[in-house]
UniProtKB/TrEMBL annotation, chain A:
It is found in: Cell membrane. The chain crosses the membrane at residues 6-27, 112-133, 145-165, 172-193, 199-216, 253-279, 299-325. Belongs to the binding-protein-dependent transport system permease family. One of its GO terms (cellular component) is plasma membrane. One of its GO terms (biological process) is transmembrane transport. This is Oligopeptide ABC transporter permease. It comes from Devosia soli. InterPro entries: BPD_transp_1_N (IPR045621), MetI-like (IPR000515), MetI-like_sf (IPR035906).
TrEMBL record, chain B:
One of its GO terms (cellular component) is plasma membrane. It comes from Devosia soli. Residues 72-268 form the ABC transmembrane type-1 domain. Keywords: Cell membrane, Membrane, Peptide transport, Protein transport, Transmembrane, Transmembrane helix, Transport. This is Maltose ABC transporter permease. InterPro entries: BP-dependent_transpt_permease, MetI-like, MetI-like_sf. It is found in: Cell membrane. It is a multi-pass membrane protein.
From TrEMBL, chain D:
GO terms for cellular component: plasma membrane. Residues 6-256 form the ABC transporter domain. It comes from the Bacteria. It comes from Devosia soli. The lineage of its organism: Bacteria, Pseudomonadati, Pseudomonadota, Alphaproteobacteria, Hyphomicrobiales. Belongs to the ABC transporter superfamily. The keyword Nucleotide-binding applies. Keywords: ATP-binding, Nucleotide-binding, Transport. It is found in: Cell inner membrane. GO terms for biological process: peptide transport. InterPro entries: AAA+_ATPase, ABC_transporter-like_ATP-bd, ABC_transporter-like_CS, Oligopep_ABC_C, P-loop_NTPase. PROSITE patterns: ABC_TRANSPORTER_1 (PS00211), ABC_TRANSPORTER_2 (PS50893). It is a peripheral membrane protein. This is ABC transporter.
TrEMBL record, chain E:
It comes from Devosia soli. Keywords: ATP-binding, Nucleotide-binding, Transport. Transmembrane segments: none annotated. This is Peptide ABC transporter ATPase. Gene3D superfamilies: P-loop containing nucleotide triphosphate hydrolases. It holds the Pfam family oligo_HPY.
Amino acid sequence: MNIRIVARRLLFFVLVVWAASTIVFFIPRLSPRNAIRERFGELARTGGFSPADVEKLIASMQQQFGLDKPLLEQYWQYLGNILRMDFGYSLSRYPMTVTDVIAQSLPWTIGLLLVTTVISFVLGTILGAVAAWPKAPGWLRSTATPFILLTGVPPVIMGILLLFFIGFRLKWLPLGGAYSVGIVPTWSWSFFIDLMEHQILPALSLILGSVGGWVLSMRGMGITIQGEDYVNFAEHKGLTGRRIFRDYYLRNALLPQVTGLALALGTVVTSAVVVEGLFGLPGIGTALNLAIRANDFPVIYGIVLFITIAIALLMTLLEFVYPLLDPRIRAN
Amino acid sequence: MTLRYLRRNKGLAIGIAIILALALFTIIGLLVIDPKKAYPLSAALKQPPSLKYPFGTDFFGRDLLAAMVVGMWQTAFIGLLAGGIGTAVGVVLGFLAAYFGGWVDGTIRTICQILTPIPVLLIQVVVAGSLDKRDVTIVTMAMIVAMLAWMGPTLVIRAQVLTMKERQFVAVAKLSGVSDLGIIFKEILPNLLPFIAAAFVGQVFGAVFASFYLAVLGLGPLREPLLGNIIWAAQSQGAFFNGWWWWPLEPAFAMILILGALALVNMGLDELANPRVRRTE
Amino acid sequence: LGQTGAPPPTEIVPQSLPEVARNETLNLAWGVSASSSIGTTNPWVLPGYTHQEGNNLLFEPLMYFGIYKNEFIPWLADSMEYTKDDFTALEIKLNPMAKWSDGEPVTAEDVVYTFEGQKQYETLPYHAQFADLVDTISAKDEHTVEVTFKQPAPRFKFEVLTEKFDTGIPIVPKHWLEKQEDPTKAPGLAEMPHSGPYDIVAWNANQKILDLRDDWWAVEAGRVEKPAVKRVIVVNILNQPIDTVAQRLVNNEFDSSVDMRAQIIGNILQQNPDIQSWTGTESPYGYLDWWPNSLWMNDQLEPYSDVRVRKAISLAVNRDLINEVLYEGAEIATIYPFPLYPNLQTFADSPEVKAEQEKYNPGAYDLDESAKLMEEAGFTKNGDGLWEKDGKTLDATIQAFESIHGDIAPVLSEMLRQAGFDSNVNFGTDAYQNMVDGKAGLYLFGHGASLFDPFEALNLFHGRYSEAIGSSAGNNRFSRYKNPEFDAILDEIAPLGSDDPKFISGAAKALGIYWRDVIDVPVIQWLHRIPYNNHYWTNWPSATNVGMGTNGAFWAHTGMLVITGLKASGN
Amino acid sequence: MSENLLEIRKVSKVYQRGLLSSKATVALKQFSLTLKEDEPTILTVAGESGSGKTTLAMLLLGFITATTGEILYRGKNIAGLVGKERMAYRREVQAVFQDPFAVFNPFYTVDHLLTVPIRQFKLAKSRADGVRRMEEALTAVGLRPEDVLGRFPHQLSGGQRQRINVARALLLKPRLLIADEPVSMVDASLRANILESLRNLHRDHGVSIIYITHDLTTAYHVADDIVVLYKGDVVEKGDVESVIRNPQHSYTRLLVDSIPWPDLNKKWGEPLKPRETV
Amino acid sequence: MSASQPVLRVNNLEVTYYTDLGRAKALDSVSFSLKAGQKLGMVGESGSGKSTLALAMMRMIKPPGRIEGGEVIVGDTDLMSLNDEGMRAARLDKIAYIPQGAMNSLNPVMRIGAQMMDAVKSHVRGERGSAIEDRCTAALRSVDLDPGVFRMYAHELSGGMKQRVCIAIGILLRPSVIIADEPTSALDVVTQRQVMETINRVQAEINAAVILIGHDMGLMAQAVDQVAVMYAGRLVEMSSVREMFTDPKHPYSQALISSLPNLDTKGVFRGIPGLAPSLLRLPSGCAFHPRCPHGHEGLQRSVRPEPVTLPGGRMVACHLYNEDGHRHE
Ligand SMILES: Nc1ncnc2c1ncn2[C@@H]1O[C@H](COP(=O)(O)OP(=O)(O)OP(=O)(O)O)[C@@H](O)[C@H]1O
Ligand SMILES: Nc1ncnc2c1ncn2[C@@H]1O[C@H](COP(=O)(O)OP(=O)(O)OP(=O)(O)O)[C@@H](O)[C@H]1O
Ligand SMILES: [Mg+2]
Ligand SMILES: [Mg+2]
């Protein structure tokens, strides 16, 4: 691959990050609200703060967060900080930094989201491929239908329903938390089982609704590919159905599907905001949700930016991986 | 012809049927029901579904039947407004980019591509969160949702216009002395109607979903009986635990119906717009 | 990563954790929205509000206050006395047995260091009091501290030095803090020595585990018996929906939790007979907090500056309906700006107050009268049935806080709407700021003032605190009310003891003015409805078992006394 | 000396592949050609795939601009035409394209193809006049108007569709018609009909035709003159009879040799005999 | 098998497409036979059923189409009676198909070699990888391709090369019947000729029967021994190429031949009048009668002509010829 292309893709990546940071920086600052004051309001309102001179405290915090400088200066400083992956301090969990907050919640999110995304991607892709494959047995092809119907169910609602029916009513699975109360994480089998038990419902809430999307895109792709002459010719060659399915059909249809994967991450994270909260999981979603409630803007922006960067990075990586998968692109 | 097509495209048919049924429910409801009943303290409290209150009432004394009617209407309003704006902006930009090419195209395309990886819902949350709460109304809600929703349609329409533009009937129209505008509106646009319709339905789906999401996070216009708001209120009052199951379940199922129907229609329109998909049936 | 400033706190990860049986463990469900900075035990780090999540088991004050017994509970200090009649000097004598968890004794030096720190660091919550009032701080000997004041400070001992509810200051260890580069930024983690009964052994986003230590000074000093609870787990419920938390309580997963809304706790008690509340299994399930809520009004802002409008709003509030809708018939609605704690109840029942109440009838609900007043004030009803003047409806948006006013605010707003006020609720995070800046006209907020006599509550409305709109109102001084007549009464009773008859008649007159002028509209008493699970632990505080007299919240400063007082149920 | 209808002066077209790429395709090199106003002719441009035939057509129609050189229509550079002159050029230089399906807008009935130019160029005095002209043109190419009008393109056969295209050209009575592979996508059995229509257009209305094809069989039958392109270069030109029967350039010879003549006596590789009699 | 024994016999093959608009009988009792080494050209208008015939012989008709009857006997196996697995094994091994659109018939993301190897592996068990590879490179060589093509991807090849790869795949297992559906229609004349010559050569090499589908009569004249003419789903005439060009029997064939441009008749055009019928609304009786110069009356309108064999083995289906193969007058 030539250097120019690499450079262009990297430039694109930088542009995405820049655009996201700029939006995230300016939008909230267009409103006349003052996050630090509001934050102290949250503390003061329960009477928790004694009648101290809150204003002084606020002024001192403003300075600490650099909010007393002119907007443009703040902006340059902010861009510089982002370059160093430094999103500043969390307002509500001071003296934790945003990076700490993200680092602490990330493992949970990666654990949950990545696994569910991969499961729903794999499941959806296979079901979608099968649904579009005329030679598959009818019952197998129709297994995709319920998932397609479930695409209309937002993960939040799915989570609420699962929690109600399986958690409250049937009492089959724990109602929340990342693992049982009082257990400390260890590298043991029993901890793993306990952990998994707690992840099933949140995972299902995310998976059930999203499989359908993959089914649909794969089905559409599959139908297109199926009409391709090379699939027909493969059949003329007398290949077995399995081999055609795998080498000629699945493999070709998969390529565009993979692009969707990076983009899906954005949607999935958003779903996680509510689902993690619903089940009391301490992931990025919960961190974001809590930050929204506490108006902890450095954390909000940090997380939004972090996710954007992650997606952009994934997309950029895919651009480099793509040619390895598709020789046609390699040629150009 | 259309009917025969609908019989084959079952998803589209079912989707349209559900939407029509919901629309009917809403329209008849708005005619028959006093919309005031959709607001707190207008009915007995916490009543399970009964003859008097077919859908029950909630903790705050809303008649949930009225709330569902008004909420459905508001949800539809947000969806149509935001979807309409997103699609309209997308169509205009898509046409501009594809038809005039050059730097216009370069700029529009680059902006779209740069904005695409940014998780829209999160940005919407940031925007909704930094708005003054008093400014959050049904309309601002639609605007927030529409704000970052035009990139998808823009890219789709652009791609379609680009292929359309290369189609020979455009060349022939030029030879027939048709102007640029004539070509855009009379030759290309009509052929893109299925795509525009599909984009529109997709946008409406996205808008309904996003507004629902914002409401569930407590960022919606609070007093309004938006479906997301009702679920949010039920959640924060511990409705399930207190045995008021009908309160969250009704808006949840309404939401599922709306989104499901939109998904089906979208799928069906895809099939219509993309004859390759049609080929299997 | 190139960060400067505070070292980041980190999770506390145990090497190995000894087994502690469930029936020796106390599981508490708690979730302060995001404000826990994991690993931060140092009480000087702001805005960590961490005493609520178990850090109240680490750091102790000079004295606690038992609100239901109306008495000070000596703790690190054996005594704390004003040595001058004009309240300008105070002497503190420490318990000689008090010691830190690292074996060092708690000395007068530690107290002086704690006080000097408040004086020195702007970010500490009592900085203003120390800076404004305190003149000198000195250690007279190893166990004696003397504080002198620049002006009389009769309430300093109670307000600042004593821990009750969420206020008061904990004493910090000088020998550790002074070694830190910046004592207001050192997270503390598990290393910071503390005087309380528990050690932090594990802390991550899911939970915080504290284990009892054997050498707690207070047992040796005879303050209390050795605690039965071997381990406290503060479970972070993050923002799980409240019904899930309730269900987990019912399942005996938790022994206690955050406070609940009336309906939910009622259902919890029904579903698990082991669980009780402050009032047993009876409504209203909770104990009185010091924070009765009013519909505050910005008395300087048009049209709320017109007393007729304020009265009209007051007349639109249907307190009976509030009791019925939100509190299952429990009498929560109030007409007082202070909590009816024993002494205050006596005051409220006094004939002087009764006479004023008769005169102004502050709890009345009368829409016709309300409408009449509005018309008098020049308003007319528009097509939507909303009050309007000069073509603009009256903006009656109520600023409130979703997590605590989620039930009442919409109901109030709807009541106003039914009386023709264009009302809405703003649950935004800007709500508080709008009150402080005086931008908004209506807000739901508490009066964190009076505990013992009505003075502090009435003093909130003293003209000297009445800031102009735009400049920020001092804490709880949001009504911006100014009335020389009212001020004169307050100034007159200020130096008087609270059982002085002159104080009572003066205070009653002031309360009368409060009602007459509708400075704000008192709405509800604030209750803490905390579920207590007797399955593993008994001897929870309740109306019939006041124990040391503290309130029953395990997260308040006094929560340490609640937890160390628990007894095993034998299950 | 008669006036030149069309004069192509040393036109080259270079396609740049993307902005950053250094690769460029020279699709047409220094191409020159002159058509006389009063001597209407049929000129074949032949060559293998990718030799630049379509590029030439697009240049002549003004859809793309030449990299170097200029194209003069009635003595004026077509790149500089404005207003009335441009309208006239638009009308007088018309085309018939290769794909008889793609030229129809699938949204409209086939009438659209004919009504639009009538409207745009104001060819008819009234609606009825327009309809009459349409019917005339259709009849002239051997279609019955009632068979085709009001139908959608997919309801017609390829041959019918292509004949409507010719009818469109007829309706406009252009001075110059560019036919880019007009029969290569039409059934062999229908080719004859379409070529016949084109010939009639030339013969009856004096239209000059540039007939672009890779099929030398039909070229031989239709054209007067021929230009053979190879990778953008003109390798041979002259009257069609002599070029095909007696190719000079080796590429032309290869091309001629490869023609599958539907003639059992003329097998691949055998040289063509000079024509016996005319 | 004796030399004169036909290697391929198609009997009464019938295919119907069940479309939205009705049933379209795309093949209507088509019968013919072919001997080893023979080349048959199958011509006819677009939509006359040529590809359908090829696909039906491969048993690759997809819904909404259905094979409704008939036999396809290769050697002595009736393909129609095989089970699915048997048919799969027969493809490429007994009967190979070279597709119409070679441009897109190769998987763009697999190397050519892999696509050849998997074809062999699906039919031959227990052959070593290197042996299969040798077999493949030999096939490439026999279609005049460099063995290096084995490691290339489709996009690296020109149209003619791709077409030849398809041919190479077709002959990998030396089938007894090869069907090539318009193998050259997308190629320019020079390449077209090369490809046709390649087909000729490999056919000679493996002595297969070849069916060449196309509508270019010129190509047929150059390349085949026998010509079969299809019209509206039926075989209307089949005879040797010489007879077809010199003395076509069926009026449609006659029109077809006379519409051809000829070296000696410059500037004379004669098309076939009228339109190809839609399979959904076939004219009654003889499908060609509305376009037939020999009248539209009686028998032609009402009765479908059955194929008759004329002396010399030619076959024609037309009312002009009676059972003995003589022309009615
Ligand atoms: N828009 C374009 N961008 C870049 N290269 C082009 C473009 N159009 C054509 N070319 C190149 O220019 C050359 C000539 O193309 P052109 O289409 O004129 O050939 P042609 O003779 O019409 O071929 P065919 O017989 O296949 O239609 C080819 O190499 C082609 O790849
Ligand atoms: N999948 C299908 N569904 C419906 N009808 C079909 C289908 N495939 C083919 N047909 C019809 O069957 C008839 C024969 O088609 P076929 O493709 O065999 O023709 P052909 O002779 O190969 O034509 P061409 O020369 O265009 O390749 C046509 O009328 C066509 O419309
Ligand atoms: Mg071309
Ligand atoms: Mg075919």
